[in-house]
Design brief:
The chain is an alpha/beta fold. The protein has a single domain (3-202), classed as 3-Layer(aba) Sandwich (Rossmann fold). Helices cover 26% and strands 29% of the residues. The chain has helices at 3-15, 23-31, 63-72, 90-96, 109-121, 158-161; strands at residues 52-55, 58-60, 80-84, 101-106, 127-131, 144-153, 164-174, 182-190, 193-202. The strands form two sheets. The protein has a seven-stranded mixed beta sheet with strand order 5-4-3-6-7-8-9, with helices on one face. The longest helix has 13 residues, at 3-15. The chain is globular.
Length: 218
């Protein structure tokens, strides 16, 4: 299979027609080999327009959703970014082509090892994959210019929002109550004032640990 051709087709047919105009995001998606981040048996479908399972309950985001979220984050070359959930390292690899430094926090030890190995094999040396609870983020290296949620959430905790630095941005897919389609959300911190804006409809698999607390009626 010609993965280079498949990658360009992904950009041409999935990304460009969906209002993605940020040249840096487009170039990163065209350069990073998505097939390197999926199980070998799934490499031939690496460029389909859907999320791909890489471990139990864990997925690489659909290319269009990933691209639109990163475009919304207004990534800059000097940014330090935090990825919540590294999966096998694909989203951190895309970020790494645009920003200065990426910290990717991952709760699954196996995924930490896989992401670290794949990123190293590809010569991507500005990503640090660290093991930790996703809901805690990684305050040790914060605050961050960008926080990217690599999966959908029912809600994101204040403890992670507090890691967005002044002028920083947070992007995530927030699921709807009782629905299958959520909304892409952009959070911005300006001089300590945090604002939130909904961007577009999107559905993608949930990140573990960010489910809404269940309430019971008696």
């Amino acid at each position: 299979m010609d993965f280079n051709a498949a990658r360009q087709t992904m950009v041409d047919s999935q990304v460009l027609p969906n209002r993605v105009t940020d040249k840096r995001v487009i170039e990163a998606l065209a350069a990073v080999p998505r097939e390197a981040f999926v199980p070998v048996k799934m490499q031939e479908i690496a460029y389909v327009d859907e999320a791909i399972a890489v471990a139990e309950g864990r997925y690489i985001l659909e290319p269009m959703i990933l691209a639109r979220l990163m475009q919304a984050a207004d990534l800059k070359s000097g940014d330090v970014a935090l990825a919540i959930g590294s999966e096998n390292g694909y989203a951190p690899a895309i970020l790494a082509r645009i920003v200065s430094t990426v910290v990717a926090v991952e709760s699954d030890k196996g995924l930490v090892q896989q992401a670290t190995r794949t990123l190293s094999d590809l010569g991507i040396d500005n990503v640090a994959v660290v093991e930790g609870a996703l809901k805690e983020g990684y305050p040790k290296q914060g605050p961050y210019d960008v926080i990217f949620f690599n999966g959908a959430v029912d809600e994101f905790p204040d403890s992670i929002v507090s890691q967005v630095g002044d002028g920083g941005r947070l992007v995530a897919i927030v699921s709807s109550v009782g629905g299958t389609i959520g909304r892409a959300v952009l959070v911005i911190n300006v001089n300590g004032v945090v604002s939130r804006r909904e961007l577009f409809d999107a559905g993608t698999p949930m990140l573990p640990g960010f489910e809404r607390e269940q309430t019971f009626a008696f």
